[in-house]
Amino acid sequence: MTAPRPFIIPVFIPHKGCPHQCVFCNQTVITGADGNTDPRRIRAFIDRYLGYRSDRRGQVQISFYGGTFLGLSPDLIRLLTDLAQDYVDRGLVHSLRCSTRPDTVTEETLDRLADVPLNTVELGVQSMDDGVLARSRRGHTAEDTERAVALLRSRNKEIGLQLMVGLPGDDRTACLAGARRMADLAPDFVRIYPTLVLRHSPLATLYRSGDYRPLSLDESVSLVKELYLLFRSRGIPVIRMGLQATEGLDRDEDRLAGPYHPAFGHLVASAVFLDLARALLGTRTSPANRAPVFFVHPKNISKLRGLKNQNLHVLKAEFNLTDLTVLGDESLDDDSLNTDQRTMTMAELGRAPGEASEWIL
Fold it and tell me: What is the pLDDT of residue 272?
C-alpha cells in the first residue's frame, strides 16, 4: 500500500536568500505571496492551515518555499526554525521541509541545522547542463548539484530535485540527458516545471526582443511526458508537474507567454495513458469488431479519457473504432491499464526518448 502523502504547510518566502535573480524568476507572481516573515503572520497562516488537514494525509511538515532557505541569514533561519520547532514540540507538526539552491548546501549550513528536524530538502536544480544554467543566470553548476545531493544523503535527508523544461539554450536532447543524470542521483522525488515568461523577469525582456521563444503547450506536455516516464522507469516518484495555479499566474498581464495550463499535470498524465492505450490496442488479439473495454484504477478514469474525452476521440479515429468503454477497477495499480486480460504499466511502456527536436530556446 502506498504511504499517505505528507500534509505540507507551505510558508512562502519569495526571493529571500537568493543572491541574484534568475532570468525566469518572479516568485511573487508564482507563489502569490509577498514574503512577509512577521512571526505573528506566519503563525496565523500555520494555525489556519492545520485546520484543513484530512485524516487521509500523512505526517505534517512546515515547508519554507519560494526563496533560498539555506541562503538566508543565520538569524532569520533561526527565527523561522524556532517558530516551526514550537509546533513540533506541541505535537502538531512532525518535521520541516525547505527548498534551496544546490550551492547553499554546505557542511557549515547543515551544521547550523543539526538540532532542527529538517527532514526534507528540495534542490532547485532546474538543469544539469552548465550552458543552460549559465544562460539562465543560476550561478551554480551541475557539479554543485551532485555535491549537494551527496552532502544531504550523508545527513540522512529526504531529497527532492526540481527540474525546469524550456530554459534559454535548452533543447530536447540536453533536457533528457540532464534528466538521466538527475535520475542517476537517485532522489526521493522530483518536480517538473515548464518555463513561463513572467512580468518583471529578465526573461520577459528576452522574449520581447525576440531572443527567447517559449515552448508551446503541446511541446511542453510531450517533453514532460518523456521525463515522467524516464523517472518512473527508475522508480522515482514525480510528485508535481506544472506550477500550482495562483491568481498571479492566471492574470494575462503577469504571465506574458509560455506553456501554462492550470491542469498541466493532468494533461501530461492523460498523454501517458493515451500511449498506454495505443500500445495495448496495437497488440489486441480479440476480434476487430468487438469494442475494446479498458480497465483502470478509478482515480485515473478522467486521465485515460482526457480533457473533454479527447483521448477517446483520438483512439477511435486511429484504430477505426465505433465504441470504446472505460471502467474502474480498484484492484489495479494506479500506474497501469488493462484490456483483453492484458495489463501494461508505465514502467513497461518503456518509450525510448525521442529524437532531438529542432527547438533551441
Answer: 96
